[in-house]
Amino acid sequence: MPATPASPPSTASAPGHESGPPTLDPGQRTPERVRPGVPPAEPATTQRRSGVALVASLLGFTVITIDVSAVNIALPAIRDSLGSGMSGLQWVVDAYTLMFAALMLSAGALSDRTGARRAYAWGIALFTLASLACALAPGIGVLIAARVAQGAAAAVVMPASLALIRQAYGDARARARAIALWTVGGSVAMAAGPVLGGLLTDSAGWRAVFLLNLPVGAVVLALLIRVPRSPRRPAALDVGGQLTAVLALAGLAFAVIEGGHMGWTSGPVLGAAALALVSGCAFRVVEARHRRPMVPLTMLRDRRVAVSLVVGFAVNAAFYGGIFLLGLYYQQLRGMSAIEAGLMFVPMSAVVTTTNLVSPRLAERVGRRPVIVAGQLVFTGAMLAMLPLAAHTPVWLVLVLLLPLSIGGALAVPALTALLMDAVPQERAGTASGLLNSLRQTGGALSVAVFGSLLVGPAGGFSLPGMRVGLVTVAALLLATALLARLLLPRA
Question: Which residues contact 337 (CB under 8 A, 6 or more apart)?
């Protein structure tokens, strides 16, 4: 089945909102300033506004992404400064990603309902304030609470940023290029985050990792002043669905994180697992009965949508888990400083950037399905390639083994995102973006939870056998989703 082209942006605007230049009624005389043979001024203005919208979206997406991987490198410093075990460090990461994942479902609808620009501005403002709270946190509990607020804000920023691009670019080809740049920014930020996190942690302390977000947030808010207002579209806020989603993800994360520390058969862990199961079933029932659910189940019947979500989950599980694993491997097992550990990611950042630039062009030539499948297979190889890592593995060999990790996600994600955006109508762009990124963040959160539970050895040190079990598990997941994509995605 050929891929369905993306719908062009609607020209209708809500009262008091800009959506583009006015249209002329049939028979209405053309204004004098628009004469045959003379190009109108609007296209140039529209291009400038589209460029500003893209830069604003890219900056916001970059800062919420870089925060994840930069914090991973700062974890040992946070442990020494605030006093925390592996469980507390896992919650520093997953408090952010879980709220990111769960609230993004409603955030997509919020973006459609309030307008992408307004939702984006709210999200950036809250993220900036929450970053300040993280930097000033006096203890691990306060830091985790501030990370929850950061995750909630990032959940609004992510789908709104992509919807803002969807609004700014009417031409499908130009939109695909803009989405590719947006994806490049996120992938590069994820790969470069450890480098920046290491530099900041060693030179100015782990709190500087969060303080960096303040000036970036101010720049994004200034740019948004020049972006046209977004039209509002009908999208109901599904309170029941959102509540059950939060409970399901929180229960699942608690069971996985604490199961490795409290025991898998302990009362709190079994209770959390039961909560996750019951809440997950309740979510399915609520969404099926809601008149305007935040996750329209009919949208999942499109194979392109369903496969995109599953693949996004697996790819993020591999990448987030890999970054979390390597940050601890470098510092806890090999004894590297934060800056040394961060610099180990420099080659990875360069390869991610190059691959992201190549991926969209490759997808245009050979099709999106082969690129998506190839990316997952490369990622599978990356997980297996890391199995021989040990405390005394030569540094040059470690860098070589990490090359597949750099290529896999960077190859698959641009094609995956463009495929999903073309599979849904414009009015569902925010919802689809929120759903995709919710599944991606859930994959990352659960991967961190699994790796964190496995990495703690008998004496509290870094466990190589546990690391290898986690790597094989993620590799099996990637192989399964690659087969799913190969069988279900359309050829074109």
Answer: 198, 202, 331
Rg of the chain, C-alpha, whole Å: 22
Residue type, 412: A
3-state secondary structure of 456: strand
CB 409 within 8 A of CB 354: no
Task: Count the neighbouring beta carbons within 10 Å of the beta carbon of residue 409.
Answer: 32
pLDDT reported for residue 423: 80
**Nearest to residue 233, comparing CAs of 303, 169, 159, 285?**
159
Question: CB–CB of 209/201 below 8 Å?
Answer: yes
Lowest mean pLDDT among 22-31, 100-109, 144-153: 22-31
In this structure, what token pair is assigned to residue 211?
């303080």
In contact, 378 and 328? CB cutoff 8 Å = no
Number of neighbours of residue 21 by Cβ within 10 angstroms? 13
- 23: helix, strand or coil: coil
**pTM for the full predicted model:** 0.73
Helices (H), 290-344: 303-328, 338-343
* Residues 293 and 428 sit within 8 Å (Cβ to Cβ): no
pLDDT digits (tens, 9 = 90+) for 301-324: 888 888 989 999 999 888 888 888
Which amino acid, residue 32? E
Q: Residues 176-214: pLDDT tens digits?
A: 778 778 877 776 777 678 888 888 998 889 999 999 999
* Backbone angles phi and psi of 456, in degrees to 5: -85, 115
Q: Which residue has the tokens 């059950």?
A: 244
